[in-house]
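Feature request disguised as a bug: please show the residue count (1020) next to AAA domain-containing protein in the output. Example input:
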Amino acid sequence: MKQQHILNFWRDVEVFNLPDFNNDCSLLTAASFPWQTNKPLKNPRANVWRYTLLFGRIAKKDVIDTIERLLDVEDPPSDWEEPVTGDTCLSAIILDQNGQPNSKSYIPAAFIFGINCLESNVSISKVPQKLDEAQSDFELRYNIPAVIDEESERKGPPVIPQYLKEEIKYLEKITKDWNKTPIEIYVVAKEVPKDAEPDTSFLNSFYLNDLNTLINIDRKHYGTALNSYLSLTVDQLPREDMIADRVHLCRSIDPALMPMGRWPAKIQHGLYTAQAGAVNTTLTDLKNSAGIRGINGPPGTGKTTLLLDIIAEVVVARAQKLMQISPDNLFGRYTKIEREDSFSGYYEVISDALADSGIVVASNNNAAVENITKALPSTDKIDATEFKDANYFADYAQRLIDGESWGTLSAPLANAQNRANFKWKFWLSDVENEMPGFQDLLWSVYKSPDHDQTYIYQQKFETVRDELEELINDFNAFKQTASYFHNQYPVFQHNRKLKNEYEDELRVLQDNVVKLSGEESRCNSQLKETDELIQLTRKLLDLIKEQKPAFFFFHKLLNTGQYKGWRTGYDQNMRVLQEHINKKMMLTKQLNSIRSEVSGNQTRISGLESKLITVYKAIEQYLELKKELSENYGISHSNIVDEEFYTAPLENIQLRTPCSSETINRLRSNIFLKSLELHQYYILSNAKKVRNNLNLFFEMTEGRAKVDQAIAETLWSTLFLCIPVISTTLASVSRLFASMRQESIGWLLLDEAGQATPQSAAGIIWRCKRCIVVGDPLQIEPVVTIPSALVYKLRQQEGVEQVWSPCGSSVQILADRVSKQGTYMLTGDADQKIWTGFPLRTHRRCDNPMFDIANRIAYSGQMVKATKDNLQDGYIGNSTWFHIVSNEPPINKHVLTEELALLDEKINALRATGFNGEIFVISPFKSVANVCVSEYRYKSGISCGTIHRFQGKEADVVSLVLGGNPHSQGARNWVARNPNMLNVALTRAKKRFYVIGNRNLWATCRYFDTMAAGLKANNA
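Example output, currently without the count:
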């Protein structure tokens, strides 16, 4: 298997994407073609009419049934599977104000050619060729002239009824074997700018163009991140388990890795250990190199907080580059771009200061994108009391958000409406309300030659540059001290070990010296006593000598008795003397040995005492450094990574905020704010050039100006200079960044990646140099609307493994598998371990029992609760499973009227307590959710739906209405096939979680048995 096989498989899957039918249309009749009616325009000077013809309104279910028939799928759909709803169409043609098509007007739906391939049993890879053939056939049918030159627009004559009849016949011919619905024509009329390019991608998968592009280029042009994302094997990749080995976790929070920039949130709050480790390692790994990293963020673990800090650091990093370049040296010459009726121009970016610094926030979920882009400019997201002067072009973001703004930090550009809204509210002035646009601010800098303010802003830039440099120096001084302390811990451990060893050895030596001193004293005493005995014996011998018999010689010669008596006394005393002398010699030798041993011990003691002084000094320096960090930088001892940190229980470590203090948080936040101020004056110092480039940028995004990749990168770089973060949905990437190619964007922050299909991110990962993928594969899974049997067939054709399939995999899973830092995790009672990206584990949302249940069913008990439970009375009691047995047959398979009646009763009781907060009503089944939506549509504060509606949201109270046919165990098993649905439902609830349903039936299901054990039961 090769990487191209994966891309082929993904492309084949996307061929069968069924476009939604545009309901904002009307049936076209031959009696009145709208392009013949001369309907007046709202703005005739700038706009024209554009017409889109839609051919066929086909039920999606009919298409799915056709595909399953061709695949010989015999099993009827299970009663718990939600039926495919809605309509699709077969093709579209875009006409100009005169009803004329051009060479780019035709948009055939790819799925009809995919079905043809299935009918003919040929590879789906033939679809691009069939689409090209369809385009050629269209040009012949509509008399589109052949290519004359590249500049000429190739248009056909105005559409007449005969053309449309031929078009219907063409579609009937290629769909005759499966489509039984009469093909009618619908029209959508829209007023657009005269030079706006039409959107021709709406009828097919938004990912198809990017996948085809990637299939047709060499893998060496994929870029580092995409090549990593498509890694065929991961067994040999190095992995650091941040849960199993705390050494890796502690290494990740080395202050040397701490970024300078910090989001200006409340300075009392720092990042928890895992958050800090994720930010540190991710930014360090990607700062100077390309790649992709996964961060595993269960609900309530601070993913958004983490992303805000990453954004702050990217801005600071660019500010450091700008500090080295005079504002005069950022842009080069002006280049004019000629157009039919006008011209535009741009200034080339000639410095690399803007390269790789743009940030794109993307998600499959539009709500997730909006959450971040609306949070960035909002005063609610910063410590407005501490940073009361925070202001980055704040007035120009005010119209973009609800509430008060502090800075123009982000722009939502996901679709045409977003882009138009952004232009009107940011770029253009609201004259009526006297709110100037950013364009006019830039123009005001240089519009008067006599009062050009460029030089003033250049001077302000230089002042702010010096101030920022001073802040950076302060931070670097802290970082050097803190990192030195952090890395001295192994030395401290070693020194403490040596201290204990030296002290033990010294104690033994000193005890030995004491012992030897006693022996020496006893030896000296014995020696003195022996000397006295020797002297006494010698005196006795002298006395004996004086008492020799007279005529001693003759007595000795004759050996007389007198001689013998004398000799016996003399010899006895001589023996005694010798014994004393021998003893003295022994004692003297023993004393010398003792003295030698004492001397040796004292020498060793002296050496040990010298070593101990060195060790004591090193330990004291370490402790003094710790004291300095605490006293000079205000870091509490619990947040200093020392011995106690290393030895504390892991759950205790996860609750700490390493190297965080008000002093450091304030300093880092000020570095970020000062970096924004530097950007502000840098932009105003280049007001004319920025204004020109952004004018062209808006023309490019509106389709009014065609530019090549180099110009597009210049225009995007200019926008990113002004607005650090751009947000988009994955579906909009190929259109929004149509001119951008491999690694042309600096940073991608892909949020809620667990619910994005693997193929949906290929295009944006290819375009981005550094990709940070954040999400949780144990929450909402990707939605796949085409039959699983078809996905299986397409996968088998390309020989692709299951991990690449949208049925069971996601962007998060693929990013996690190639991430160096992470952990292994068991889900529920599964035996197979999965590797996740860097694990965030400190949870701040849910009270118990929701936290405990979710932690057990989904996260192997790894999460740690950071908040105390709300024990106050109120609501309608503690979280409870209201057990109810339904005797009536279900409506629409899963709706049980008794459960809905009980839900209404409990909601009324809750409101009667005075609770006015929002209530979420969630059901595993769409049919139940739809009834709840209808029932509570006009009741404020009650939101109903399946889990897909509530991803990323939270409420104090959540009710889970189980529903389900009591006689269909299969439906319950389907809900309980993995922990995802229950995990999402549980983790939406902050204070109370009420379950309504048959406890006896559902408690037999996996995961629900854990919930049954953890929730109080109440028979309704």
